[in-house]
Amino acid sequence: MRYFLDCEFNGFGGELISLALVPAHAPHPVLYLVITDVAAPLDRWVRRNVLTVLDDVPEGVTILRVDREAAARTLGAYLRADDSETVIVADWPDDIALLCKLLLTGPGEMVATHQRTQFELVRVNSYPTEVAGAVRHNAVWDAMALRTRLAGYWS
Q1: Alpha-carbon span 64 to 124, nearest angstrom
Q2: pLDDT per position as a tens digit, 110-128
Q3: Which of 35, 44, 77, 86 has the highest count of CB atoms within 10 angstroms of its CB?
Q4: How far is CA 116 from CA 51, 84, 87, 88, in A?
Q5: φ and ψ of 53, to 5 deg
Q6: In terms of Cα–Cα distance, which of 33, 136, 121, 28 is closest to 83?
Q7: Residue 37: how many CB atoms within 10 A of its CB?
Q8: 8 touches 18 (CB < 8 A)
Q9: Is 18 helix (H, G, I), strand (E, B) or coil?
Q10: Which helix (H) or strand (E) holds 4?
């Protein structure tokens, strides 16, 4: 299964604030994690442009507010729920790095995932988007905009 990834984080090189994985096809649900134990202080731009839209998600998307440890377990379970090969597509390197960092649970330890997970970095601008109601800087909407921008890319 191909998933489209977007993350919001606390400024350049900062901690993960939210992560969304939007599947290429239904019926697999969207995963949206909001991390509750992000260390302060938060970047001013992030407070104004990211925190204000964390809850602005499409109908039917569940917001999972979890600490980092629970986020890692939830991410692992989500990826294992689909038994096909996992391909995660992002438009920015930090998104991939933050997802990979979230998988780590301790020295030499990580949550269980598939034996093989591939990452694709496709540098495109997802906005403007054709996704009706999209809210920029919300990880779910941004991942959906990326999926829409890349529709047909692998055909």
Answers
A1: 28
A2: 998 877 899 999 999 999 9
A3: 35
A4: 33, 10, 9, 11
A5: -120, 10
A6: 28
A7: 11
A8: yes
A9: strand
A10: strand 2-9
Q: How far apart are CA 112 and CA 153, in angstroms?
A: 29
DSSP secondary structure string for all residues of 79-126: HHTS-SPEEEEESSHHHHHHHHHHHEEETTEE----S-EEEEE-----
Q: Which two tokens stand for residue 151?
A: 């529709």
**pLDDT tens column, 20-50:** 999 998 788 999 999 999 998 999 999 999 9
In the beta sheet, which residues pair with residue 87? 2, 118
Task: Find residue 8's DSSP bridge partners.
Answer: 18
Let me know: does 119 contact 5? Beta carbons within 8 Å. no
Contact indicator for 17, 46 with CB cutoff of 8 Å: yes
pTM for this model (two decimals): 0.95
Q: Are 34 and 64 in contact (CB under 8 A)?
A: yes
Cα within 13 Å of Cα(62), Cβ side:
7
Beta bridge partners of 104: 110
DSSP code at position 76: H
| 106 CB-near residues (< 8 Å, 6+ apart) | none
| Tokens describing residue 104 | 């780590």
CB atoms inside a 10 Å sphere around CB 24? 15
